[in-house]
Amino acid sequence: MQQTDDLETFPYPFKGEVYRYSNNSAPLDFPSSIEITPSYINEMNLKRGLLNQHPERCYQSLSHTLRGQWEILEMIMGHLTSHYPDQFSLDKQNDEWTFHNKILQEKQYFIFGDETTLPCEPLDFIGRHVQEDLIFMMQRDGDLFLDAGQLCFPANWSLAFDLGMSFREIHHPIPGFKEEGLDERILQFLLQLEAGNPWWRKNWSLMAGNRLDTSLETFDVWGKGRKGVTLNNAGEFVHLRVEVQKLFRLPRSGGILFTIHTHLISLEKLASKAEWAEQFYHILCELPDNIVDYKGLSLFKNQVIEYLKGRLESRGVL
Amino acid sequence: MQKALFVSGKRKYLFCADQNGMEILQPVIDLAVAEKAPYEIYSEAQPLIEWLKKQKMGCYLYVAAEWAKLDSLKNLTEEVGFSEEEAQYIGYGERWVKVFCCRCHGITEVILQEKQEIACSECDLLLEVSNHYSRLKNAYLGYVAKL
Ligand code: HEM
Ligand SMILES: [Zn+2]
Predict the structure, then answer these.
(1) Which residue ranges make up each domain of chain A?
(2) Which of A41, A212, A274, B92 could share a disulfide with A153, CB 3.0–4.6 Å?
(3) Closest CA to A168 of A150, A155, A185
(4) Domains of chain B, each with CATH number or no CATH
(5) Which atom of ligand 1 is nearest to the CA of A154?
């Protein structure tokens, strides 16, 4: 199954030759929470298969989130129909709505605000039409809580475990986040997020393999790939994994919609752009051990560096 | 063993502990005395809840007890109105905790130790017990210990 992105559209994440954790969020110019790419149909099949086979791993919600979930459904349907009018349409007759996904040839009639008219909860329903993972953070007492989410392609974390956690609790495993006060600063930034002014950021890691569903629940299976990376297979086998993350304030519920679109590109393809190969090479060489460990690169970082070095040398860059 | 941390500049200090707990609190009691701050030590002559209720705003509370009793004490003090910022809880002895399996979501109860590996009671996977904690599940996350 083709799960990798094209070079031209790949959301390359790096600036400069040093990578550190920071609040790297920026205003989102094109205000859409979602993006449809050529792998839409593949990814919808993959997502729905995971949701059906592993519902507890991929979908979690607390009961007080339903109103917010409807607000999310409305926002995403709005984005789909205004940015992709040829692929999606929405017919509204007061509360009676009909959503049409023309790519998948599916039509759903429902009464807005009445869960019994949908096959599943609103967040779960709309998540089955977009490539993004969808996280609903609710705000109360000056804090944000992960109270619902649909997550099929996690970067090695568990939605079932994180349900109900505050922003800082969620980020507890990240080295230096609390010590450097980053968790508090980012939380304050998020609390001030305004409706109509969405933000976005990119996060990256390396994946030994090309699975999108790198859940913590299956780490004992896919994590083994990290032991099988060699200088010879690194180019095809290892992938740069980039999450495009977007943050939208929900005006009615006061919560935040956090969408995550995951992209993969093989090292080989990435390295076909000499500037990218060179920049990534320097970043990996310089990356501090605690970030290397947290991102799970310890077992194969050296092979990747050697591979990139070889590509650069063959071009006379290094 | 956990230690109590002295938070200086409070209006009054309250200490609540059993005999072993008092030993843990003694260094902070000494510091409160050195600061000439008012303080009070709970004695079992009256119910704890009444002693807590009669205290005024601005008090800082230290509680030290066996881990097994600490949660219910914390519930009580929070009910009376002491927030996370106004109190410190220090546990000693054996501490039973729940561990959430990253693979099967099963829960295993163990006595907490430093750098611990356990087998999941449901799927038998070897887990490394982390300090990533969920209040909702009252459990620590167990990660894959060996790839
Ligand atoms: C508000 C919605 C957000 C949610 C639900 C969220 C959730 C998460 C989760 C679950 C992880 C993985 C933690 C683990 O290992 O268990 C993570 C990692 C991380 N998050 Fe967030 N996050 C959010 C927003 C942000 C923002 C706004 C920033 C920065 C501006 C940020 C920065 C990071 C960083 C740097 C990592 C480490 C990633 C790595 O090294 O690969 N997060 N986040
Ligand atoms: Zn298990």
Answers:
(1) 26-314
(2) A212
(3) A185
(4) 12-92 (3.40.50.80), 96-144 (no CATH)
(5) 10
